[in-house]
Design brief:
By secondary structure, this protein is mainly α. The chain has helices at 9-25, 32-60, 64-88, 95-123, 130-149, 164-188, 210-244, 251-273, 277-302, 316-333, 340-358; strands spanning 126-127, 337-338.
């Protein structure tokens, strides 16, 4: 028996509260209390935005639902990146690269590892469709190589940067590959991405009414406004805090990615605990694809009016972590079965990434 989808009270309260916090803090020096409120408002707005995007996605169905959710999350990520780059000057030139790379590491090692570990602890062995997850990994590998690896080795411009034409090609290629993947996942071979038993998620809630979906759409837009404004407000304090603990400025990108991907992490773990590992992998790998497949084109367009260079190429340390992650992910996904061993390996790689991000 299906039940109508109702909006929880917190999702109704958070967007206006976040906007109030934005009005209270915008253009002011942040004291301790106000800083805490801004951080809570920012985290709440991100969480509520993703929730309302899911409600709208549930109403319109596939493939448009997946596109709405991915675009909403990417708008949040791009808004945070562009806001911090615009206010950070030359030292923020690598923020887009750091955030996208962090998103890849968080999704493929952190979210996947946590889902594999916790799901296997409850269910011992979990099964998934190797051809679906392997295909997603192939697209991720191609996208990250075209966008973040090649700039280190191109010769048209000095340093790990793209020329204008190269950046345009990378942006278009990323958008095309992501579009093809979404079409395959939601239309052409949708059944490939369902759990092994051929069913969807356990919760068969009826689609929300038009009024509920429109309300969620309005609240989603309010959340996005709050995210952009609060990010601009807190960005100087965030960068100062990172510098005060001796961490490199690139760690700001890690914090952004962790914040944006928190709702997906919770959803992936819940699915794994319900023995729906395929759903967890769809969330994790889909988030990685959206992060790079939509963020790079958006940043390419934003670079037209952003001043200063746009550093995209990864360093040697990051390249080693990327190769290790791709190889490990291939070995994990090729079998179609997972235990806590694979989860432990991915979480170890994620721990190494975090440790090296703080102490490079």
């Amino acid at each position: 028996m299906t039940t109508a989808l109702a909006l929880p009270r917190w999702s109704l309260a958070v967007p206006p509260i976040a906007l109030v916090v934005l009005l209270m803090s915008y253009g002011r020096d942040l004291g301790t209390v106000l800083l805490i409120l801004v951080c809570l408002g920012l985290a709440g707005a991100v969480t509520a935005a993703v929730h309302h995007a899911e409600v709208v996605a549930h109403r319109v169905g596939e493939p448009f639902g997946t596109l709405i959710l991915a675009i909403a999350v990417t708008v949040i990520e791009v808004a945070l990146i562009v806001t911090l780059m615009a206010s950070g000057g030359a030292k923020a030139s690598s923020l887009a690269r750091d955030t996208v790379f962090a998103a890849i590491m968080i999704t493929t090692n952190g979210i996947v590892g946590l889902a594999l570990l916790l799901g296997s602890l409850r269910h011992r062995v979990q099964e998934f469709r190797a051809h679906a997850s392997g295909g997603a990994l192939a697209v991720i590998t191609a996208l990250v190589t075209l966008s973040l690896v090649l700039p280190t080795f191109t010769e048209s411009t000095p340093g790990p940067t793209f020329s204008g034409a190269q950046l345009a090609f990378a942006g278009v290629a990323s958008l095309v590959l992501y579009g093809v993947f979404v079409f395959v996942q939601t239309v052409r071979h949708r059944d490939y991405f369902l759990p092994k038993d051929g069913t969807g998620d356990d919760d068969h809630a009826a689609a929300p009414a038009n009024r509920t979906a429109l309300l969620s759409l309005g609240l989603l837009l309010a959340c996005l406004v709050a995210v952009v404004g609060l990010a601009k407000t807190v960005s100087p304090t965030l960068e100062s805090a990172v510098e005060s603990v001796g961490a490199p400025v690139s760690f700001v990108g890690v914090l952004i990615a962790l914040l944006v991907l928190l709702p997906e992490t919770v959803a992936a773990v819940r699915a794994a605990l319900r023995n729906r590992l395929q759903v967890s992998l769809n969330l994790a790998l889909g988030s990685a694809l959206a992060s790079i497949g939509l963020t790079i084109p958006a940043i390419a367009v934003a670079s037209i009016w952003l001043t200063g260079p746009l550093t995209l190429g990864l360093g040697a340390k990051e390249l080693v972590m990327l190769v290790l992650t791709v190889v490990t992910s291939m070995l994990t996904l090729v079998t179609g079965r997972a235990t806590l061993l694979q989860g432990s390996v991915h979480l170890t790689l994620f721990s190494a990434f975090l440790f090296l991000a703080v102490t490079p």
